[in-house]
């Protein structure tokens, strides 16, 4: 059972990783090169020839995207096997909830304190401090996701989905407020370029996790067509019985 879930996770990670690597090669890398040229033009009258060709960078980006997808997929498969009974929703919803928790823990919540910055930008914090802040933010993110799940299950036991969803969102409100106190200013590329880079990275990670969850669900349904919405039906029956 664990091996099957791990296998599906790796397969889904491969699919998501290829798509993510393609995004890096086709969109993010050209933006990075543009940022580097902007930096050269700002500081020098001429731009140096790139040490690595664009084709080599593209191949490396796709390969890196696949490896990152495989790593996330393997972790996703194991986490799904261990946490499925505790996660709300049916088959598709369970994978989506787990993917959302993974994104928030690994990227979303840490980015509230340390947003992605374009190449050449000067960080407000030194490397050691950034690493500590990022690790701490990941721990806070994992804790918030766990509290959110507990709040949802407790509220869902005798209340509507809307009330339960509101309760699930509550643990994240203090985190959003606390992130305002963390210095995040950078200097370097033009503001428009930095903003485009940041949102492209965010879009890429959101897409990666969404595709990972969707492909994992598809592979699971292909192997077990009756897996459907078992948990969803259980929750609805429990809610009806408690009413």
Automatic annotation (TrEMBL):
InterPro entries: CbtA_put. The chain crosses the membrane at residues 12-32, 52-83, 95-113, 133-152, 164-184, 196-219. Keywords: Membrane, Transmembrane, Transmembrane helix. This is Cobalt transporter subunit (CbtA). It comes from Natronoarchaeum mannanilyticum.
């Amino acid at each position: 059972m664990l091996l099957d879930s791990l296998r599906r996770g790796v397969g889904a990670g491969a699919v998501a990783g290829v798509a993510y690597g393609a995004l890096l090669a086709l969109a993010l890398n050209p933006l990075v090169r543009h940022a580097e040229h902007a930096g050269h033009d700002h500081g020098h009258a001429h731009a140096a020839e790139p040490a690595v060709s664009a084709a080599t960078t593209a191949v490396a980006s796709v390969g890196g995207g696949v490896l990152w997808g495989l790593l996330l997929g393997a972790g996703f498969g194991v986490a799904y096997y261990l946490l499925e009974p505790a996660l709300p929703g049916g088959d598709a919803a369970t994978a989506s909830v787990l993917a959302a928790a993974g994104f928030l823990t690994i990227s979303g919540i840490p980015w509230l304190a340390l947003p992605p910055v374009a190449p050449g930008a000067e960080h407000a914090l030194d490397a050691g401090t950034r690493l500590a802040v990022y690790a701490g933010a990941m721990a806070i993110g994992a804790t918030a996701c766990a509290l959110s799940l507990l709040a949802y299950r407790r509220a869902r036991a005798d209340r509507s989905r809307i009330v339960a969803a509101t309760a699930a969102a509550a643990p994240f409100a203090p985190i959003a407020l606390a992130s305002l106190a963390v210095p995040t200013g950078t200097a370097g590329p033009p503001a428009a370029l930095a903003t485009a880079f940041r949102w492209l990275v965010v879009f890429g990670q959101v897409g990666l996790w969404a595709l990972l969850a969707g492909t994992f669900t598809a592979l699971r349904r292909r192997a077990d067509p009756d897996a459907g919405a078992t948990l969803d039906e259980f929750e609805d029956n429990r809610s009806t019985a408690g009413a």
